[in-house]
Amino acid sequence: MSKNILLFYSIVALILMSACKGQKDVDLKSAVASFVSNEKAVVGYGYVDVKSILDKSDMKSLKGIGEFVTEQLTSMENAISMDQGIYYAVAGPLNNDGMPEKAYLFLKVKNKDSLQAMFSDMGYSFEEKNGKMVFDDMTTAIGFNNEIAVMISSDFKNKALEDLERAFVKIADKNQSKRVVEVLETKTDILLGTHLENLYGTSNTTLNKLPMDKQAELVSMAKDGHFATTIDFNPGNITIHTNMERVSEELKKAFFFKPAFESDAVQKIGPGKPMVAFATAMDIPKMEKFVNRMNPQFTDDLYKMFGPAGILLKAVGGEGIGSVINGELSFALNAISADDMGGMVPEFNFYASLGPNNQFVTDLITTFGEEGEVQDLGDGYYKYGGAMAYIAKKEMIVHSSDSLKESFKTAPLTSVPGMEGFGKKPLYLFVDLKQVQKIGIPIGGEASEVLNAADYLVVEGDNTSLTVKLQMKDTKENALKQIIHALKVSIQMNMSV
């Protein structure tokens, strides 16, 4: 009798364990990691934290908009788990407009019946196949079970259900790339992952016409390479950050920014209080080599851009441009004024560190001087119209609004709020958007509304990362909320159409 009871409890335990296993919650992030890791055509992937974005935008408080947003959000929250976000993937090859061949959306199902009702309200009708509810036409395929919904947009050519079924097979694959998992673990509002290996592998551009040894070199450089770009809507700013560290050692060695400035590009770009400031420190020969790997005609095309001067530069041979310009450049736009003809006249400074063949620059200017266009003032000073240039052994400095040797001075720029990082990384750009707005450059439509609320823009980067920051005038309110409220009239008009 005791043996029968023991057998009965054993059977019940097995049934319960089996039932619990069947009800195990599927992690959407892990499922997408599996899909991206096993679909060789995926060139981009990531997620959108819709709930966070809606909360930060405060769209629900806008009159005439909030009711609609609340209604749609309620419908979505009943059908899908908003806390897990909405994941996506795009598959190559990309067309000439940069559009992918296929686009995927992945949703975590919260209630299967509510999800079907939500899709039905959108005009989709479903049938059950292989344990999933499915819909397909020539451009859209949707499938979902109790756990995950997959939507695919493409020109299917009667293969929609095949693509849909293949997607479900791949999200169930346990094989996952470590780097894909790491990228998807990134916390942000919007994540944009780039799969470099697949991007090259699906390319149908001129890269495929390169010699086989060059193609093999690019394949090795792109191997298991992933960029991760985050977009965060913060109090007072929007920050876009790209991490470029998850790449091969070959690609890391090919990146061409210098570790730091070695010249006076930062110390001598002034004087002035800039509305735009730019500085970069590049290894020019390394940059040429990097770009020529993907476009062997790059250097020739670059020389052609310089016209007659480019022909002379090409004749220099050796390191080419890198023998003349040492790769450290800076630029400051201090003002823009109107001339007598109503045109815009920029007041700017420019600095370039020179390479071993610096004599080429002097010879070139001397050539123009013989034609009467440039006046040699001696001691390395040259005058051209209302502008002046100073050329020494290691540097060339141009001021657009100097005309006398005695008044030609150099100094660091007068720092303005936002450009505290100027020169600290080998790539830096600062734009004072308030000053740009004052100039009266015609910027119409919605961009003008955003510009009214913005303070400045900063771009800075090196060989490991690139960061873009849009700072708003209001430093406390979330930047997305500020933009949405600035555009509320346009949004209301679009929703009423």
What topology emerges from the helices and strands here?
Layout: H1 2-22, H2 28-38, E1 42-48, H3 50-57, H4 66-79, E2 86-91, E3 102-108, H5 112-121, E4 127-129, E5 132-136, E6 140-144, E7 148-154, H6 160-171, H7 178-184, E8 190-195, H8 196-201, H9 212-222, E9 226-234, E10 237-246, H10 249-254, E11 276-281, H11 284-294, H12 298-305, H13 308-316, H14 321-324, E12 325-338, E13 344-354, H15 359-370, E14 375-378, E15 381-384, E16 387-391, E17 395-399, E18 427-432, H16 433-439, H17 445-453, E19 454-461, E20 465-472, H18 479-486, H19 488-496
Major β-sheet, in short? 20 strands, antiparallel
Cα distance, first to last residue? 76 Å
- Provide the residue-averaged pLDDT: 86
- The number of helical runs is 19
Helix content: 25-40%
Shape: globular
Report the β-strand fraction as a percent range. Answer: 25-35%
- Strand pairing plus helix content: what structural class? alpha+beta
Q: Low-confidence segments, ≥5 residues, pLDDT <50?
A: 1-23
Total DSSP E strands: 20
Structural summary, described in words:
By secondary structure, the protein is an alpha+beta fold. It has 19 helices and 20 strands. It has helices at 2-22, 28-38, 50-57, 66-79, 112-121, 160-171, 178-184, 196-201, 212-222, 249-254, 284-294, 298-305, 308-316, 321-324, 359-370, 433-439, 445-453, 479-486, 488-496, and strands at residues 42-48, 86-91, 102-108, 127-129, 132-136, 140-144, 148-154, 190-195, 226-234, 237-246, 276-281, 325-338, 344-354, 375-378, 381-384, 387-391, 395-399, 427-432, 454-461, 465-472. It has a 20-stranded antiparallel β-sheet, with helices on both faces. The longest helix is centred in the N-terminal third of the chain and has 21 residues, at 2-22. The N and C termini lie far apart (76 Å). Mean pLDDT is 86; it is low at 1-23.
